[in-house]
From TrEMBL:
<dbReference type="InterPro" id="IPR046373">
    <property type="entry name" value="Acyl-CoA_Oxase/DH_mid-dom_sf"/>
</dbReference>
<feature type="domain" description="Acyl-CoA dehydrogenase/oxidase N-terminal">
    <location>
        <begin position="6"/>
        <end position="118"/>
    </location>
</feature>
<dbReference type="InterPro" id="IPR006091">
    <property type="entry name" value="Acyl-CoA_Oxase/DH_mid-dom"/>
</dbReference>
<feature type="domain" description="Acyl-CoA oxidase/dehydrogenase middle">
    <location>
        <begin position="122"/>
        <end position="217"/>
    </location>
</feature>
<feature type="domain" description="Acyl-CoA dehydrogenase/oxidase C-terminal">
    <location>
        <begin position="231"/>
        <end position="377"/>
    </location>
</feature>
<dbReference type="InterPro" id="IPR013786">
    <property type="entry name" value="AcylCoA_DH/ox_N"/>
</dbReference>
<dbReference type="InterPro" id="IPR006089">
    <property type="entry name" value="Acyl-CoA_DH_CS"/>
</dbReference>
<keyword id="KW-0560">Oxidoreductase</keyword>
<dbReference type="InterPro" id="IPR037069">
    <property type="entry name" value="AcylCoA_DH/ox_N_sf"/>
</dbReference>
<dbReference type="Pfam" id="PF02771">
    <property type="entry name" value="Acyl-CoA_dh_N"/>
</dbReference>
<keyword id="KW-0274">FAD</keyword>
<dbReference type="InterPro" id="IPR036250">
    <property type="entry name" value="AcylCo_DH-like_C"/>
</dbReference>
<dbReference type="Pfam" id="PF00441">
    <property type="entry name" value="Acyl-CoA_dh_1"/>
</dbReference>
<comment type="similarity">
    <text>Belongs to the acyl-CoA dehydrogenase family.</text>
</comment>
<dbReference type="Pfam" id="PF02770">
    <property type="entry name" value="Acyl-CoA_dh_M"/>
</dbReference>
<protein>
    <submittedName>
        <fullName>Alkylation response protein AidB-like acyl-CoA dehydrogenase</fullName>
    </submittedName>
</protein>
<keyword id="KW-0285">Flavoprotein</keyword>
Length: 379
């Protein structure tokens, strides 16, 4: 594995850094406070190629590798994790899933708009009674010959209100258990499809999280992804890559908070010297920097394996497990280093601390990552 970034990768990182500073930073506090979806900013991210980073240019994508995606995710997440979750879901769940397993017609119809930001995608696996226990799908997709009849409720769906394209996992043949599950592409506006109210959240408050209700929605057969019964494997394989995206989000939240704390520690004086010169503070920063570096290496390794077309299920889960814990630990310490100023919104670190928590929950909780990792140890 080569640790040196290519010219292209450095350029992508700089472009994401510049975008985050100039387009995302202004207004980030207000968007968080008032739960405002960053619509304009997401549109620009689409125009700049950040929403279909790894997709083949023939479908409007940027044709980049996963390392570039990790670099961009880190930079965007340093500033606005609400924007980066939209980016992660669109890139690594929706675009990747359709490009890898969709038909040519599905790619032409959906990918070309999803990569440019003309449309946004959502990935709909979780239900009120099926979160970690994802095979217990209650949503049904009954085979009616030329279409499926979709009924049920999905919970906590990121981009739930703003998406146009929804990848919905549903049970077609309960007797076959997870082998009877399908993934259907549902479009906003299909009759019987309703979006529930927006969730009022602790963190990533600018992101748009809703439950979705399906009542006798007719979904054409050509909207199924893969063979009959492939839906659960589709979800698992897609989530493996998604976890690299969320690990990078956690990495970005941690490094954003660390950079603010390092700067503040050299500006704030107490007892006649910079607080950095108190070893208790310098050692906190040393721990933060070390864990961030370790998290970055895990993210990069998982991304590199994916780019080499090697299995990365375990490494992606390790990256998410470690980076999300690092995000929590680092943001708590960043608030501490800021003292009372860390507790108010203007200094950003309290928001990063609230945003960090979700990275230990979605795309598989930390306990689920440990299941994935431990099972792979004895495979
Ligand atoms: N690739 C391919 N197939 C896989 C797989 C993978 N990575 N992981 C599991 N499978 C297959 C298994 O091989 C098995 O198939 P066979 O019976 O043919 O061998 C089948 O899937 C069922 O697997 P398990 O027996 O391991 O299933 P399980 O019930 O024990 O659950 C689990 C496994 C890992 C816990 C899984 O349920 C899981 O990942 N749960 C967490 C769900 C999750 O991550 N949700 C995230 C929702 S999306 C989201 O959150 C988006 C966002 O925040 C922004
Ligand atoms: P549960 O599964 O009920 O878990 C509760 C607790 O029990 C957790 O601590 C869990 O780790 C633990 N637990 C459960 N089973 C085990 C076990 N076998 N061993 C040890 N511990 C266990 N889902 C989507 O499909 N699409 C999205 O876009 C999406 N976006 C989200 C956005 C937000 C803001 C949030 C909050 C959630 C989102 N989710 C999404 C859902 C998310 O993936 C689930 O919340 C998550 O998978 C956990 O499921 P649950 O909430 O039902 O918790």
């Amino acid at each position: 594995m080569n640790f040196e970034l290519s010219e292209e990768q450095l350029m992508i990182r700089q472009a994401a850094r510049d975008f985050a500073q100039t387009e995302l930073l202004p207004g980030v506090i207000e968007r968080d406070e008032n739960q405002i979806f960053p619509a304009e900013q997401i549109k620009k991210m689409g125009e700049l190629g950040f929403l279909g980073m790894m997709v083949d240019p023939k479908y409007g994508g940027s044709g980049l590798d996963t390392i570039s995606y990790v670099l961009a995710m880190e930079e965007i997440s340093k500033v606005d994790a609400s924007a980066s979750v939209v980016m992660s879901v669109n890139n690594s769940l929706v675009c990747w899933g359709i490009e890898k397993f969709g038909t040519e017609e599905q790619k032409q119809k959906y990918l070309t708009k999803l990569t440019t930001g003309e449309q946004i995608g959502a990935f709909c696996l979780s239900e009120p009674e099926a979160g970690s226990d994802a095979t217990s799908q209650r949503t049904t997709a009954v085979d009616m010959g030329d279409h499926y009849l979709l009924n049920g409720t999905k919970n906590w769906i990121t981009n739930g209100g703003t998406a146009s394209v929804y990848l919905v996992i549903a049970q077609t043949n309960p007797e076959l258990g997870h082998k009877g599950i399908n993934c259907l592409i549902v479009e906003k506006g299909m009759e019987g499809f309703q979006v529930g109210p927006k969730e009022n959240k602790l963190g990533i408050r600018g992101s748009d999280t809703h439950s979705l209700m399906f009542t006798d929605v007719k979904v054409p057969k050509e909207n199924r992804i893969g063979e009959d019964g492939f839906g659960f494997k589709f979800a698992m394989q897609t989530l493996s890559g998604g976890r690299i995206g969320i690990a990078s989000q956690a990495l970005g939240i941690a490094s954003g908070a660390y950079e603010l704390a390092l700067k503040y520690s050299q500006e704030r004086k107490a007892f006649g010297k910079q607080i950095f010169d108190h070893q208790a503070i310098a050692f906190k920063l040393a721990d933060m920097a070390t864990n961030i570096d370790a998290a970055r290496h895990l993210c990069m390794h998982a991304a590199w394996l994916k780019d080499q077309k090697q299995n990365f299920d375990k490494e992606g889960a390790m990256a998410k497990l470690f980076a999300s814990k690092t995000a929590m630990d680092v943001t708590v310490e960043a608030v501490q280093i800021h003292g009372g100023y860390g507790f108010v919104k203007e200094y950003h670190v309290e928001r990063l601390m609230r945003d960090a928590k979700i990275t230990q929950i979605y795309e598989g909780t930390s306990e689920i990552q440990k299941i994935v990792i431990s099972r792979s140890l004895i495979k």
